[in-house]
């Protein structure tokens, strides 16, 4: 279980997260939506310990996140803009991360062939296309079989075929009972993949709950309509 | 252990970049030329020291900052892994400071080796020259890291401050000291001057060099004070200890910064 307790993050005068309280139970897929600059990525980065909250605390399985790093053993993270050491080849990168993880059991071979990355293995990261970089990020996030997977705009750089492939993989992980957290601007993706929805505007949570409930409340067939309505309400 | 894995990767990356060999080659060529023209006596050693006092802080500080900017992706990738930030910091720092120190040491040592300087009685002076270069490398790489972390999103500022900082400590500081002596020459300013010297690591290193070679004519005001105050031996010890203290400050500052900052 992931708990955000009264999380506030300020960058100078700018308040990016404003007293967020959240509980995300295990074994469900949650989509985080919100306008650009609403604090989605900052929330995710706080959970990963990349950003240190100004106030409040985050707990992963009742373990605090601050000054702690062991909990990241159980987290796979795929960043929004995947940037990797330029001179490393893809195979070297995987080897290196495995070494950092002390040779934890991993199933990267299976994932590499699933995403069709074999021809890229000996290429330097800087020569890889954006989409292939994203795929490398996907493999990195899944290879150690973590219980919690965090995807920040995962399909943004992927072609339709890879995008479908990726989503199938996520469904597979979901059926295995993994906890999945994902942000995206593509509402249909959330509809396809997530059961729960978190809606953030200007660092505050406007809605958190099952997706169906939101659709019923807004008498809307599609999520896009419901979210657009919420955004308008928030702006008004 | 994980620090070593990171260090090892950084080292490979440096070797692939090849410039570290260029850095070693510069010292090799300069030392070779100075020994060729100045003979293998203390004169050559002193000239090498002078080059070292200027070049080591400049390269270490600028490259310390630059290196952090270049390793940004690498750092972000590793921060999301189950890894202590402290481990990551020492991996990054060691991955630069150790190759830089090795390049300096080899570059200076090899010409001395084939000129037969190591057999003579100057061995203590040579060891001191090497040690000073290594300490300055570690110290100024630390300052470079500190600046790089403080201006992580603004590399122009980070590199600018590194450059200005070097100019101030290596060049302007002496002028400033001279100016103060000139203006306040009638007052008993020996002790404040001594303190002022201790505030500049490059000055400290230079005084150690001058005291070791016992060149009172070149010692300048602060060197003379040091000599009078402590004598050669204790002067070197005091300056050396102050230098070690100096080494701790930027490393303490940058580890703290690294531990607390947002990525």
TrEMBL record, chain A:
The lineage of its organism: Bacteria, Pseudomonadati, Balneolota, Balneolia, Balneolales. Residues 2-227 form the ABC transporter domain. Belongs to the ABC transporter superfamily. Pfam families: ABC_tran. One of its GO terms (molecular function) is ATP binding. InterPro entries: AAA+_ATPase, ABC_transporter-like_ATP-bd, ABC_transporter_ATP-binding, P-loop_NTPase. This is Cu-processing system ATP-binding protein. Keywords: ATP-binding, Nodulation, Nucleotide-binding, Transport. SMART domains: AAA. PANTHER family: ABC TRANSPORTER ATP-BINDING PROTEIN, ABC TRANSPORTER ATP-BINDING PROTEIN NATA. It comes from the Bacteria.
From TrEMBL, chain B:
The chain crosses the membrane at residues 20-39, 51-70, 90-114, 126-147, 159-184, 204-226, 232-253. Keywords: Membrane, Transmembrane, Transmembrane helix. The keyword Membrane applies. This is Cu-processing system permease protein.
